Amino acid sequence: MTAATGVGSMPGTTDAEHAEAVRLVLGELPDLPHVPELPGRGVTAAMTGRTLGLVDGIGADLQPAGWRLTDTSGVDHRRARSLLAQDLDTVEEVAQGWTGAFKTQVTGPWTLAATVEKPRGDKVLSDHGARRELAQALAEGVRDHVADLRRRLRGVDRLVVQVDEPALAAVLAGQVPTASGFGRHRSVDLPEASAHLEWVVAAITGAGAEAWVHSCAPQTPWSLVAGTGVTGLSADLAMLGPADLDTFAEVLEQGRTAALGVVPSTDPGSPVSDARVVERVQRWLDMLGLDPEEVGDRLVVTPTCGLAGAGSAWASQALRLATVVARNL
Predict the structure, then answer these.
(1) How far apart are CA 72 and CA 256, in angstroms?
(2) How far apart are CA 208 and CA 206, in angstroms?
(3) What is the CA radius of gyration of the chain?
(4) What is the DSSP secondary-structure string of 212-279?
(5) 236, 305 Cβ separation under 8 angstroms
């Protein structure tokens, strides 16, 4: 049976709204709810700060230019850790007794390297050794994160960890700006790009969870991602080009998961027909030469990207619509 889930982020600016978001995903996404992220609460709750909060063995602090690695954790890094723990406490409390599947999200090694600075400035991306150390520290942190979630959600028999890599395409294309803004960091070689992702994926699978990689950015190198051992690929369907068709077809034929972003992540201003969304997915499967009845249990329906920019009404409607489309498929 086709399932539905959210990408991760939800609207809201308060802790009370985070608790409401947890109740919402449990109610509207019965097959695969997820740990909600509310970046509207500030930079410590956004994707980079949130993931730095689960990485042990490194210090970080918030500078005017953004997050920077430091010898010891600054006050904002400690706040990010505290907020993450608080959010997981809320998930544990609200989801008490939940059985089945659950999903969480972490920022991937290349998006971290493109958004976090070294102690003396400029991105971690600019230093081969620094980006390797950050990726390895992330792998260890994610392993501990999976263990923590398993302890908190004892009834969950399937745990998915979604690795968010919106900057991966820019990293490989040499499009990440330098600190001055006048230049661009050199592109990363494909073997290194793959290896860093493989470390994180291996840590997730080694901890007994499924590893998905998500990006709603154009020109994401899905063939490279698929070769890292991931269990699933998650993408905005509109961002997939002709070259990606073979990759997604192969993933589905191998029994892995394809999560398709087909529900608008912001209010489109006019009604969205679930029948038309279903038809769109079916046409896409036909292009891949796949039988919907044979691959349906490997498909997951999602919004096109995170819902942080949506109003609360549309966020609820988008998740509900995703579930309806999944049922109809």
Answers:
(1) 40
(2) 5
(3) 19
(4) EEEE-STT--HHHHHTTT-SEEEEEGGG--GGGHHHHHHHHHTT-EEEEEEE-SS--SS---HHHHHH
(5) yes
CA distance 16 to 262: 29
Stated as kind and residue range, the H or E segment containing 35 is none
User: Given a cut of 80, is residue 64 above it in pLDDT?
Assistant: yes
Q: Which residue has the tokens 């970046």?
A: 39
Q: Summarize pLDDT for 18-47 with one digit per residue, the tens.
A: 999 999 999 999 999 999 999 999 999 999
Helix/strand/coil for 311:
coil
168: left (phi over 0), alpha (psi -120 to 50) or beta: alpha
- CA-nearest of 36, 19, 159 to 99 is 159
Cα 18 from chain centroid (whole Å): 18
Calpha distance 148→164 (Å, rounded): 20
Structure tokens that stand for 164 in this block = 């968010």
Mean pLDDT of 142-146: 97
Token pair belonging to 185: 């960091």
- Give burial (CB, 10 Å; 0-12/13-18/19+) of 22: buried
C-alpha distances in Å from residue 147, one per residue of 8, 24, 205, 271: 20, 24, 12, 42
Instruction: Compute the average pLDDT of residues 170-180.
Output: 90
State how far the Cα of 255 lies from the Cα of 319, in Å rounded to an integer. Answer: 25
Q: Is 90 exceeded by the pLDDT of residue 52? A: yes
